[in-house]
Amino acid sequence: MARFISRRLFHLIFILIGVSILVFLMLRLIPGDPAHLLVGELASPQDIARIREKLGLDSSYVYQYFIYASNLLKGDMGTSIRSNVPVSQEIFVRFLATVELSIAAMLISSLIGILAGVISSVRQYSIFDYFSMMMALVGISMPIFWLGLMLMYLFSVKWGILPMMGRFTMGLDYHVISGLVMLDSLLSGDIQLFFNSVKHLILPAFTLATIPMAIIARMTRSSMLEVMSKDYIRTARAKGLSRGTVIFRHALKNAFLPIITVIGLNFGLLLGGAVLTETIFSWPGLGRYVVDSLSARDYPAVQGCILFFAVIMVIVNLTVDIFYLYLDPRLRIDGKG
Amino acid sequence: MKRGKLLFVIFMGLMVIPSLVLAQTPVKGGTLTWGRGGDSVTLDLAQATDGESIKGGIQVLENLVIFKKDSMDVEPQLATSWEVSKDGLVWTFKLRKGVKFHDGTPFNANAVKVSFDRVIDKNHPFYKYGTWRYPALGLGPVKEVKVIDEYTVTLRTEKPYAPLVANLALWLCPILSPAAIEKYKEDIGRNPVGTGPFKFVKWIKDDQIIVERNDDYWGQKSHLDRIILKSIPEVSARFMALQSGAVDIADDLDPDSIQMAKANPNFKIIERPSVNIGYLAMNTKKPILSNKLVRQAISHAIDKQTIINTIFRGLAIPALNPFPPSMWGYNFKIKDYEYNVQKAKDLLAKAGYPKGFDTELWAMPVSRAYMPEPVKTAELIQGYLATVGINAKIVRYEWGVYLDKTAKGEHDLCMLGWLGGNADPDNFLYGLLHSDNAKPPAANIAFWENAEFGKLVKEAQTIFGKEKRAPYYLKTQEIFHEEAPWVPLAHSTIVRIYNKKLHDVPLRPNGLNSFQMIWKEK
Amino acid sequence: MEKVEALVELKKNKTAMAGLILICFLLILALIGPWISPHPPLVPDPINRLKGPSWSHPFGTDSLGRDILSRVIYGSRISIIIGLIAVSISLVPGTILGLLSGFYGRKVDEPIMRGMDIMLAFPAILLAIFITAILGPSLLNTMIAVGIVYIPHYARIVRSSVLSLKEQLFVQAVRSLGGSNLRIIFLHIFPNTIPPIIVYATLGMGTAVLQAAALGFLGLGAQPPTPEWGAMLSEGRQYIQNAPHVAAFPGIAIFMLVLGFNLFGDGLRDILDPSLR
Asked: Hey, which of B30, B252, B498, C163 has its CA 20 to 30 A from C4?
């Protein structure tokens, strides 16, 4: 076990170094000069040269990467070209918005997904089964940016039930404690703000949850079906345990392993989906920030964000693997995930 | 009968007067929410180039001089008066007394010196705290700032530079608290401390900026308690926020939404001719386009009026000179190349291209007031060029790449525009069309070099007085028209759309205003 | 598995048939597009802009007055081609890397799979955005970008089936008879990896179409006035309030095509590779 984890940690470091080099190189391969973008349409050549020098863009790539990497080791992700603010700060505030959205989406997709999957498996080939599996297919086939737009059109424009953008109605007083609006409103006992932020979260979170929800539902169903055909479930049934006990205590517990894996792997999907969802719903998160930073050629900001994404993805994968190992001792011998 | 009429009039008068009085007496208090297309990048305006930063920053910071509230003429702000020496090199400013920055630091000549020196003096200790933009447009010509006494300061330029006072009114030359600059260092852009009618309070990135009334303001104090600047990047979402009352003002709406807003009695609209131009530049260094006849043919082939009707939804006037008629020095005698397919074909034939040719049409990827829908505009132009046999392929790059490649002259035809910061013709003619700026990275992206044009523009720079400079500019516009390095497309009308509860909403031709005068009905 | 048997099963599988019908419908539309579309898809007609659905324009018109139905029909060609080419771009290198990685074990496997891990550490859409930014926006580059992004997925699928095949008796037998490595890989292992590849490629077509549309939506795809569905949808979001049809129809078109691939892929999976269920 320890050997496995240390090997995975070694991989993690290797992957992060690889990612940092890859991002660094790709950014420099992309045409477009950050200095020129910074000064805009009417930049004089002198202005551009002066700013390039100031940003350290006039030295060789190797040297630039060396500086970048050594700062990174000191915990310094650099300073945003656009705003002159440390990238770590820029990332942190936006990350909280993304976390709020992703966790909400994760909860929605897991709850509905698992529930639909369980019911489908228990009532295999029923109308509910066909319907929910069809909906799952529809869910993964829909462009989520289109779904977001249509939900926005129906719920905000046409029926006016839900707000269409932002994290809470502006003008409401908001005292930042942790940066997660929902948590803060509860901490400061502001019920109005809490419900307001929940309302704002519904459309984007649901949009973001669609694809993972579909995948989780399908996975739950097939994994439940497999478990329920096993002998020990039949035995439990024969012992006269109630249907509910059998399904939730025994079957679901044993079917959980692949479901957890899928939920973990979907976290990556959520981060990717956030790029589009945040754009549509004006959500001030990391996904939108990285795209904006890329189009402004804000090298340090983009490098920071991607590295940050990579760390999260790698940690999630590692956690899933360890979890797997913990639950399924057979894998411990081989050590391959 | 008569008496009845009189009574009726009196009665009506009594009815009307209170409502008039009510409508005209500003109400104190209230929050203004302002929906706009993006977040500010920095609020230290000496480092800002984007409109969203400027909109926020000018609520908090002030300059020595400022443009009047709805024109581009200059009036005193932190300076009370100024004069220029006979040789045109030294400008002396008398400063306003008894003004304090928001952090309590007194405003004086030293504050001016520190605010300016950090931009122009490489050896100044604060120089390294910022990335100074556009010095050429702002303080660039200033070589030395000198404190004469507590409330007198002089600026010296190397050569006589007539537009200097207009430059100082630009956002690029704000006066900040020297104590705050020292305290916040690189972070001054997130903690701006100025003398303005509003104090900076809080900034939630990509979401909102909050400023509050400065109760110690030296001038007319603001009626509003605070302003929330909310970024709503999606244009449709911004308009919906206005409709729902979530925001009081919505910036940069698309022309279709503006049409809808005009029909809605809950909104008020100010329209003002802007000091901008959207144009199609023809790269005169490319063999085919170096031919004047070809450029004239293209000018005849494009139906500007339909572009204005379709893309700008009527909120623009067709452009024929490089700068708009609202600016001084405009040549009204010039007659535009009219839309005429036959003429265009004849000119092409005369130039030796009776069957047309293949070319590339570069479309901007971002929308600007002078070009609200660049890609659609390009699609229309592509259609017009096709009717005269010119086969134009639309090319679109990301904004950064686009600026880079057009500045290097890789394009054939490309679209761009300009917002004249200080409303001086020189700003357009020298910056965008002079041969000095036709070398990569060029701002003159037609790469047009005309000796006579260039000489006239250079001479006009050294002359003081609009009346004396104007004749030079009239002549340059004739040359420009004949040579046709651009197809000037449109001068857009800028609009401000707001909830009818707001009063005294200002709009300058460049769209950048302080909101201190606004008040809001309860 | 016998081919005939598979075909019979395919006919019986309702999911697969539904998917196939959808795909064929759109494919036929794409092929006969020029003859059936009511209007030219590229010619602006500014007077008739943003008209709602009517008899002459069943899907309405866009902001330059072009017929949306005609543009959707022409767009089907583009999206189908994107799906095919992007998947081929990921398929070929992905399969080769997977075969090598799975067969040769550690020394080859480690570098290849760590490389794939690095690519997988990027959210897919971001990697695609990066690659299009490097190559410049165009239809071909969109396909290349989407293709490259999914190489690791194919490599992993192929690798895992190679790992299980390698230990099987028939491979051991060939090896003991002195078959060269390349021979074993391409003549004995590769054919057996085809069923999962076909399943994954079919599902991957759907994903590729979605990703390409997302790039178009972000303004990084085909150059205007190409009627690419994602770009059309992106234009429509501006008119969501007064002309929702502009965004609705291209979105439905994307959905139908992707649904077709997913249904068909699902059905194929049931038939070809029950273990993947």
From this structure: C163
Nearest alpha carbon to residue C205 among A268, A137, A141: A141
Of C129, C133, C213, the CB nearest to A143: C213
Q: What is the mean pLDDT of chain B?
A: 88
Rounded to whole angstroms, the Cα distance separating B421 from B432 reads 13
**8 Å CB contact of A36 and B228:** no
Q: What phi and psi, each to the nearest 5 degrees, are found at residue A279?
A: -65, -45
* CB atoms B236 and C239 under 8 Å: yes
Pair type for strands B249-250 and B31-36:
parallel
Task: Using an 8 Å CB-CB cutoff, list chain C residues near A30.
Answer: 130, 133-134
Of A152-156, B31-35, B408-412, the least confident = A152-156
Neighbours of B, requiring at least 3 CB pairs below 8 Å, are: A, C
- The CATH superfamily assigned to C2-39+61-276 is MetI-like (1.10.3720.10)
CA distances from B366 to A166, B338, B403 (A): 23, 28, 11
pLDDT in tens, B252-270: 888 888 988 999 999 999 9
Residue C67 near residue C250, CB atoms below 8 Å: no
Going by their DSSP bridges, the two strands B31-36 and B519-520 should be labelled as unpaired
The verdict on whether omega for the bond into residue C225 sits within 30 degrees of 0, i.e. cis, is yes
Total of domains in chain A: 2
Residue of C nearest to B376 (CA): C64
Residue A336 counted as domain residue: no
**What tens digit of pLDDT does each residue of B336-364 get?**
999 999 999 999 999 999 999 999 999 98
Domain boundary among A38, A73, A108: A73
Asked if A22 is an interface residue toward chain C (Cβ–Cβ < 8 A), one would say: yes
Q: pLDDT by residue (tens digit) across C160-204?
A: 888 888 877 777 787 788 778 888 888 888 888 888 899 889 999
Domain that holds residue A121: 90-331
The reply to whether residue B380 touches residue C225, judged by beta carbons under 8 angstroms, is no
Q: Give me the pLDDT at residue B316, please.
A: 94
CB contact under 8 A, C121 and A14: no
In a domain, A80, yes or no: no
CA distance B121 to B104: 26
**Residue B346, CA distances (Å) to B17, B82, B382, B383 in order:** 66, 57, 19, 18
Ramachandran area for residue B164 (φ above 0: left; ψ -120 to 50: alpha; else beta): alpha
Amino acid letter, residue B503: H
CA distance C200 to chain A (A): 15
CA distance B393 to B360: 5
- CA nearest neighbour of A219 among A269, A264, A270, A262: A262
Diameter of chain B measured on Cα atoms? 85
Angle, vertex CA A250, rays to CA A248 and CA A252, nearest 5: 50
Lowest mean pLDDT among A21-25, A46-50, A207-211, A330-334: A330-334
CB B167, CB B135: distance < 8 Å: no
Q: What single DSSP character describes residue A168?
A: S
Give the neighbours of chain A: at least 3 Cβ pairs within 8 Å: B, C
